[in-house]
Design goal:
about 90 residues, elongated, mainly alpha, 4 helices
Length: about 90
């Protein structure tokens, strides 16, 4: 199964339009137009077919996580999360 197949299947399963995918990729600062994106959904023998690379698929999946779950919240830095000083003592012997 190619990256193009994975992208196509996710698009169908999640009922996403090209504009939705462009917005999802924008969540991870990956810019692509709907025209460029349509080349990934064409048949392999089509003259405008383009192979989906690992970077695009990885960014789409990362953007999809943000789209579905929301951005990851950073926990506030409290006393328990501050670095602790480790004291090492020499053993008498």
């Amino acid at each position: 199964m190619t990256n193009n197949d994975i992208l196509k299947k996710l698009r169908v399963a999640l009922q996403l339009r090209d504009e939705d995918i462009v917005k999802i990729l924008a969540l991870v600062d990956f810019k692509i137009t709907a025209t460029e994106l349509s080349a990934f959904f064409r048949k392999e023998d089509h003259p405008n077919y383009k192979e989906c690379g690992d970077q695009l698929l990885r960014n789409f999946l990362n953007g999809l996580i943000i789209h579905l779950r929301g951005p990851m919240e950073k926990p506030p830095v409290g006393e328990s999360e501050q670095p602790r000083k480790i004291i090492i003592r020499k053993a008498k012997g």
